[in-house]
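Appendix B. One record, verbatim.
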Amino acid sequence: MHSVFDGIEKTRIDGNRFSFSHDDGLSIGPDFNKNYDEIYEKIGFSSYYVSKNGGQLVKVKKDNYKVLFKTLFGDCPAIGQEIERNPDLMKFKYFTIVAEVHNQVCQVEAGL
């Protein structure tokens, strides 16, 4: 479900292991909730510097996001399942949401 308000797209995404909406923010499991404002202030950046497992910083931007997606998120089968359910999650604009889901869901799966 999409709507546009003042040029900002608002979306509700319901995954297998998470839900995200403008009103409720991001919820992953019973004990992780991040409000919309915390996510929104990160959405819209043209690039992000990220580190995977303490490795070297990598600049992620719209132009290289598809190429880096598997490197960043391929270690977590749950992310693949979420992408199958919601293919739009592959879009760069949802990077921060997918990163939060990965950090919460995949750490639990790995027993960290």
